[in-house]
Amino acid sequence: MCGIVGYVGPQSALDVVVAGLRRLEYRGYDSAGVAVLADGGMAAAKKSGKLVNLEKELVDRPLPSGSTGIGHTRWATHGGPTDANAHPHLDNAGRVAVVHNGIIENFAELRAELAGRGHGLESETDTEVVAHLLAEEFSGCADLAESMRLVCRRLEGAFTLVAVHADEPDVVVGARRNSPLVVGVGDGEAFLASDVAAFIEHTRAAVELGQDQVVELRRDGVTVTGFDGRPAEVRSYHVDWDVSAAEKGGYDYFMLKEIAEQPKAVADTLLGRIDASGSLSLDEVRIPARVLKEVDKVVVVACGTAFHAGMIAKYAIEHWTRIPCEVELASEFRYRDPILDARTLVVAISQSGETMDTLMALRHARDQGARVLAICNTNGSTIPRESDAVLYTHAGPEVAVASTKAFLTQLVACYLVALYLAQVRGTKWADEIRAVVRDLARIPGEVERVLETMEPVRELARSLAAKDTVLFLGRHVGYPVALEGALKLKELAYMHAEGFAAGELKHGPIALIEEDLPVVVVVPSPRGRSVLYDKIVSNIQEIRARGARTIVIAEEGDEAVVPYADHLIRVPVTPTLLQPLVATVPLQVFACELATARGNEVDQPRNLAKSVTVE
Ligand code: F6R
């Protein structure tokens, strides 16, 4: 949440910062602002609303050009999305500017203290106190990095801070605690951002910042220290995402592009997983086999769409490994005193690798002695860094707020983890594992075929634009798919959308069915467990008898459902457990088209942000 950019170097800081903010706008879009150091002073501009409002302001009232600057795109926490609450925040003398992501929990106390010393604070934010504290510290030590260290030691909560001071015109200082911040090192220039997408057009050389560290950026390099001032080890890495991956590439929305990228994302995530001996090898899983053999419980923790991937993982893990698997919303996990020990394997799934709920859940798990394996899409992010092992999904940057390609690759990663556990523990033979991997290898082609047949789904979505409610039903792995379809519709189309386990219908939700209510039903393969299939076909008949308009997602060749489907969406034949990889795709397209038909902003739905770095 909130996107932050900082720059020092030979280019126009304003241009670099605004371009970076454009790439980070998915993180929050309530307001945006910039500050540049020029002519010995500070110049700042900020505007409520989307970045475009700030860009207009910069045309109407241009800022002087400078080579050091910072910027921010906001997802409001403290204080509404007004001009006054937009970042950067300045001290009373206008010499220091600061941008912030996170929540400073003791801000009220600090604010009262500052007011007592005569500071006038103008916004309702928690951030503004930092500008004032930095100004006070700087007046003592004349060193912005040292001022930042001193201030950070007084702050409670989670924060990324980036600041500039007019008296140090070639320096940008950043700090992080429990909130993302990465450094980009170019030739005679340096960058700070919440996410590498902000600077990959300039450099691929990145530096990870650890917990409670302060970084000082100068043109000729970066210096990292702990909040205590001790030099920190600098860990560099190469960013292999290409620039075009962070752009729309001719699509109207990132979401459309990301839906279309799914075949490649799935294929890339599968790449190189079978070694020369024919065994499944997951390079990034560095938990010894002897530890995995001892695991007696798997607990998956995740949020939102990633949680739905976890629900599907449970079916695969239990079926292939016979290890009991629980799936828990990360935000609930540590509050219920879960039973964990050294034989528990916790799987934390997160696209961004920064979701605070998931991070806190994994920390709790590690504190109790459990091993944590992260499934993550973002190299260098906090969740994989704090886990014992990581399996990276190779979806490339996901910019649209609604997760699509990350979900499919999370599923692939979950299947791989399940198969790997089965291999290590001997619950599946090598040839059985290779057979599933071969089935997975066919998925990119099958997703491609689904994407080629989506026009009727789009047409259907447009025809439902005036509806208030859509329900989604599924059984077995189709149940999380139904939940995911409903989540996509809620967040994008702002409609009442609910997913149910089809068997639960008769226990209450069937009362919602009324004439012409659209109900999407995810039908499992008739070639799988016939009892499952028969039951869901009965469920379709029950709702149809009560007037529902049935939208049935069924496998090619399944003719038995035809009489009960007002609309039929075909998906390719897949093994039962892998069906979510194809069945989810029409639901993504459906939600995207319905949202467009309702005039909604597909990539930036209201009230949301891509990376949820507050609890
Ligand atoms: C929905 C969506 C969210 C995320 C959730 C977890 O489309 O994108 O529900 O799945 O916020 O985010 P990550 O995976 O980054 O931890």
Automatic annotation (TrEMBL):
Record's protein name: Glutamine--fructose-6-phosphate aminotransferase [isomerizing]
PANTHER family: GLUCOSAMINE--FRUCTOSE-6-PHOSPHATE AMINOTRANSFERASE, ISOMERIZING, GLUTAMINE--FRUCTOSE-6-PHOSPHATE TRANSAMINASE (ISOMERIZING)
Start and end residues of each SIS domain: 288-427, 460-605
Reaction catalysis annotation: D-fructose 6-phosphate + L-glutamine = D-glucosamine 6-phosphate + L-glutamate
Compartments reported by the entry: Cytoplasm
Active site: residue positions: C2 (nucleophile), K610 (for fru-6p isomerization activity)
Main subcellular location: cytoplasm
Record organism: Streptomyces fructofermentans
HAMAP family according to UniProt: GlmS
Oligomer and partners: Homodimer.
CDD domains, per the entry: GFAT (cd00714), SIS_GlmS_GlmD_1 (cd05008), SIS_GlmS_GlmD_2 (cd05009)
Biological role: Catalyzes the first step in hexosamine metabolism, converting fructose-6P into glucosamine-6P using glutamine as a nitrogen source.
UniProt GO MF annotations: carbohydrate derivative binding; glutamine-fructose-6-phosphate transaminase (isomerizing) activity
Biological process annotations from GO: carbohydrate metabolic process; fructose 6-phosphate metabolic process; protein N-linked glycosylation; UDP-N-acetylglucosamine metabolic process
Cellular component GO terms, alphabetical: cytosol
Record's keyword annotation contains Cytoplasm: yes
Keywords, in A-Z order: Aminotransferase, Cytoplasm, Glutamine amidotransferase, Repeat, Transferase
